């Protein structure tokens, strides 16, 4: 039982059943700093530090790297939120392990020692990649939610991106529609659509995302795991296809667009959104002023498919292409959502900013304090293409 308000490094390590060396290492790398440092240099830890350590050890056990844990423990969460998140992750692991167990039990019951099914053994081996799959699923889902949340909270255009995008779709000409890269299904939440004579297919390459969408939206939509470079439908099957900020992630864009054209009917409509080189440039400037080594993206996605080159690319596949801009910006007056957004990006920020995440947040807070807010420009919109 905890009897004291503060604990020395040794007491703290003993309570958590870890070595003092581990506690000192977490202190050194900035992952878990003590609440107090006495004049004599002694470290003092509190009950709140114990909760933080519990979260670190839990996430580490579940397969997250220390670089990935930095932003997860720096985010302000109450005790209930923290443990609920851990429970969700553990549930995913338990379900995955149950599938492995059932498969192994089936193998034991049906194995023929003289004629072993080696393909089944290979399948079992592949299923043991549990940590990376669940960790990756969580990261993808969480990072997407974080990025959407920043726009939801601070956008000056109160229509909202997903409402605006949904309103661009001409449903009078839609019987069958496919969304590729549906993510968390945000585009379809709380929509009043007559589905009696319509089939809407929501696809994503991530099985975890598809499971989340199916759980969220129920049976009204057909949720499938699919790669848009090999769409599992016959030629001319769909009236419309949607790709919301997806095309720049496709490994082979030419192959992906060819597949989209193939499954579209003649005169079918393709809706694809993207952004330009000026999009949210202030965030990049903010981060690089703090540390010039930080790159928020490994690739300049707008160079792959952006506002500047999108029309030229699309005209190779569609008879008509028009672009509709979405006028918006962000006025951010809170540091934590912006820090969360930055740490959700696809670059090297976790590695570089993670060990100094507290200082980085203080830096962002100081800028907001001087100007009351940070204005972030947005340069995004929608291409509407006819086959």
Describe the model.
- This protein has 387 residues and is of the alpha/beta class.
- 49% of the residues lie in helices and 16% in strands.
- The chain contains 16 helices and eleven strands.
- It has helices at 9-16, 20-28, 47-61, 66-74, 79-110, 118-127, 130-154, 161-168, 207-217, 253-263, 281-290, 301-304, 307-314, 335-343, 349-353, 357-371, and strands at residues 36-37, 43-44, 176-180, 199-204, 222-225, 238-244, 264-275, 320-326, 329-332, 374-377, 380-386.
- The protein is globular and about 75 Å long.
- The mean pLDDT is 87.
- InterPro entries: DNA-bd_dom_put_sf, MerR-type_HTH_dom, MerR_fam, Methyltransf_11, SAM-dependent_MTases_sf.
- Keywords: DNA-binding.
- It holds the Pfam family MerR_1.
- It comes from Faecalicoccus pleomorphus.
Short description:
The chain is an alpha/beta fold. It has helices spanning 9-16, 20-28, 47-61, 66-74, 79-110, 118-127, 130-154, 161-168, 207-217, 253-263, 281-290, 301-304, 307-314, 335-343, 349-353, 357-371; strands at residues 36-37, 43-44, 176-180, 199-204, 222-225, 238-244, 264-275, 320-326, 329-332, 374-377, 380-386. The chain is built from 16 helices and eleven strands.
